[in-house]
Design goal:
six-stranded mixed sheet, Rossmann fold, alpha/beta, ten-stranded mixed sheet
Length: about 500
């Protein structure tokens, strides 16, 4: 078998064999809970590392079964089985996980039942890119809307689909599910189980060092779920490592969503609300080589260095997440072409008010026309998204969405123009520097940080989102800190009689 073929198989099947030392620690962690299985199953067993580690840890088991889709692993697994004293109680079979009815397959096995494993760490889109057939039958099992599916939120890990099937099969059994997986997958699986009222009695996550064990830079854990009866608290303790004596975090399920910190949520949930400000994302254009320009001493240039003579009406100083992510925000060194004032506005007006800019966009029209996202279909040529009156507010409070820090910054005008952001940033518009300063100080308060910590999963690709930011009512945190009159005063006497939910309506559109 050639190197390229082996690499494709490794990608296609998420083939990261569990090291012997880790397999033993996983089995030991299950035993530490006091659970002793009569049956052991590893649904994607590979060479059988976890299956045999569990058999060693629980020698009184009655039967153990391993299923593996790749024939190349079968000889090693069978050789290990044959050399054991308990070989007559262990069976290894070749088969496809997704072709099996696991409720039926597990029904004949005696409880207590342990299902242990290390399912593939690969997504359905990654498999699609290599033309793999090792995927579940397509279905909207996540319940995504059409728009979410179009924008990529329907992408899922193969292990997620596998674990959801196992949860359904184990619900109501005296059983433990113990799986190595990405922490993001563990949360999705728990959310599904809690939402569907599966008989989850308790759950734990123990973080593992995926680089040490698998050479993969990803947040991963051992997820253990004990079935039997429903846990009314619907919480999951998170431990910093296998064998750690105490949890350092508690996930929770409240109001139909998974929370990163249930304790923080229970303490600060009264600060939730729509609030006076509406969070916005920066401008989405999907063509930075054309739309983003570099400021130099003698004017603007393209990113490749070509000098440009564009009208000020269509260009604005810009900041990106990398500018907002660390410490003091630098003065903008890039400018963005903004061809519209509102979403859907006719862009041909630029031909009249900014002919040089229109000529530049037309010259690069083929590249802009090739933007892949469906959001540009049927829109005026050169359209952007995330644009409105709020984009041109003179003062803003902004934060980077991609960075693992809660740093809110006050951003004012630059070169007598409002600063805009790319779509890796989020912001709220303000009318004055005083208002922006107060809002930023409220958001940077310890109370606000604790509130946000209830919702933010720092291992996510984009941990900070509009949905998370919008959960905090700024007027409530102002009241909590005794600063509501100060906030209302900064907004202006003409709005001082408004109730908090009405404040900020100027930038609502």
């Amino acid at each position: 078998m050639g190197l390229a073929t082996r690499h494709k198989l490794k990608v296609e099947f998420g083939d990261f064999q569990t090291p012997l030392g880790l397999a033993r620690r996983v089995a030991s962690q299950v035993a530490a809970s006091g659970f002793v299985p009569a049956s052991i199953v590893e649904p994607s067993c590979g060479a059988g590392g976890l299956l045999f580690a569990a058999a060693d840890q629980f020698p009184s088991f009655a039967t153990a079964l391993g299923l593996e889709i790749q024939p190349r692993h079968m000889p090693a697994a069978e050789e290990r089985r044959a050399g054991r004293d308990d070989a007559n109680r262990i069976a290894i079979a070749e088969g496809d996980f997704f072709a099996r009815d696991w409720t039926v397959s597990l029904a004949a096995l005696p409880d207590p039942l342990l299902v242990i494993g290390n399912p593939p760490w690969v997504t359905n889109s990654e498999l699609g890119a290599i033309g793999s057939s090792n995927v579940p039958i397509k279905s909207n099992f996540q319940g995504r809307s059409g728009l979410d599916a179009l924008t990529g939120k329907a992408n899922f890990d193969i292990s997620e689909a596998m674990l959801l099937r196992l949860i359904e099969a184990l619900s109501g059994r005296d059983a433990v599910l113990a799986m190595l997986c990405k922490t993001a997958v563990a949360r999705k699986v728990l959310e599904h189980g809690w939402r569907k009222a599966a008989s989850i009695a308790s759950a734990e996550m123990h973080r593992i060092d995926s680089i040490e064990h698998f050479g993969a830079s990803v947040d991963a854990c051992l997820l253990t779920i004990r079935f039997g009866c429903v846990n009314a608290q619907r919480e999951c303790r998170v431990f910093p490592a296998l064998g750690a004596p105490a949890a350092d975090q508690t996930l929770g399920f409240r109001n139909a969503r998974v929370l990163a910190d249930a304790v923080a949520y229970d303490r600060w949930q009264h600060l939730q609300g729509e609030g006076p400000y509406r969070w916005r994302s920066g401008i989405k254009h999907d063509c930075s080589d054309v739309m983003e320009l570099v400021a130099v001493a003698d004017g603007l240039r393209t990113r490749s260095g070509e000098p440009l003579d564009l009208e000020r009406e269509a260009v604005y100083p810009m900041l990106k997440a990398s500018d907002l992510g660390n410490g003091k925000v630098p003065a903008p060194t890039r400018w963005m072409i903004v061809p519209q004032r509102t979403t859907g506005e006719d862009t041909s007006r630029l031909a009249r008010i900014a002919p040089n800019t229109w000529a530049y966009l037309t010259l690069n029209g083929d590249r802009l026309d090739r933007r892949a996202s469906v959001i540009y279909k049927g829109r005026p040529r050169f359209s952007v998204f995330g644009i409105g009156g709020y984009s041109f507010a003179p003062w803003k409070v902004a934060i980077a969405g991609l960075y693992k820090k809660l740093n809110f910054h006050v951003i004012g005008p630059h070169d007598e123009k409002p600063v805009v952001f790319d779509d890796t940033c989020y912001f709220v518009p303000c009318r004055s520097d005083r208002e922006a300063m107060i809002v930023a100080s409220l958001l940077n308060s310890e109370q606000a940080r604790e509130f946000f910590s209830a919702f933010i999963f720092w291992d996510a690709k984009r941990p900070i989102t509009v949905e998370v930011l919008a959960r905090l009512d700024v007027s409530k945190i102002a009241a909590e800190l005794g600063r509501l009159p100060e906030l209302l005063g900064a907004i202006g006497d003409n709005t001082s009689t408004l109730v908090p939910s009405q404040v900020g309506s100027l930038w609502a559109k």
